[in-house]
Amino acid sequence: MIYLEPFIPDDYDFLNSWISNEHELIQFSGGIFQHPIDKEQIKEYLNDSRRYSFKVTFTESHDNGLLNTQIIGMAEIYREDNKTSKLCRVLIGHPDMRGKGLGKEIIRLLLNKAFNDMACEYVHLNVYDWNVGAIKCYEQVGFVKNPLINQHIMVDGKQWTTINMSIDKSRWQPVISE
């Protein structure tokens, strides 16, 4: 099971263990952090009252009845106004947990919070055009590309293009708990 819990300053150690260079940091955070991330950057980042940052935990039960919980990533909802939020800094940092479909679960949990708990009507995100796996994940959850909204940045002399994707509450299909 995937859970979203409040991200706290001490959680920055996990980010540093998952992000080993400037390219990975830019992919994850745009330009909001400087490599290496330190506790002061995290404190400043968390000071924004419109930012809802989460550590992503994964809990599995074993045959012996014991539960194993580990922090596997991070995610954020940024409240732009009363009806609009942006999903940001979504990361499955733990390498063993990537490629298992957990990204879709994380996005669904974030959308549930945005649409139900925060009463948003519209949610969008940005993703680099070369991040095909993430784009596919977002499309499977219901996001669509906004072809007229994109940005470009230069990273080591190469242009990275950001695609904007969105979903509104009327197109969102909440997951019913079983």
Outline the biggest β-sheet. Answer: 7 strands, mixed
What ranges have pLDDT less than 50 throughout 5 or more consecutive residues?
none
Calculate Rg over CA atoms: 16 Å
SSE succession: EHHHEEEHEHEE
Quaternary state of this entry equals single chain
Number of strands: 7
Task: Name the average pLDDT.
Answer: 90
- Strands side by side in the biggest sheet: 1-2-3-4-5-7-6
Shape: globular
Q: Helical segment tally? A: 5
Q: What fraction of residues sit in β-strands? A: 35-45%
Secondary structure: helix percent = 25-40%
Please write out the topology.
Elements (H helix, E strand, L loop, with lengths): L1 E5 L5 H7 L3 H8 L9 H8 L4 E11 L5 E13 L4 E9 L9 H16 L4 E7 L3 H10 L2 E12 L2 E11 L10
Provide tags for this entry.
7-stranded mixed β-sheet, globular, alpha+beta, 178 residues
Characterization of this structure:
The structure is a single chain. It contains five helices and seven strands. With 178 residues, it is of the alpha+beta class. Strands 1-2-3-4-5-7-6 form a seven-stranded mixed beta sheet. The chain is globular and about 55 Å long. It starts with a strand and ends in a 10-residue tail after the last strand.
State the gist of this model.
This protein has 178 residues and is of the alpha+beta class.
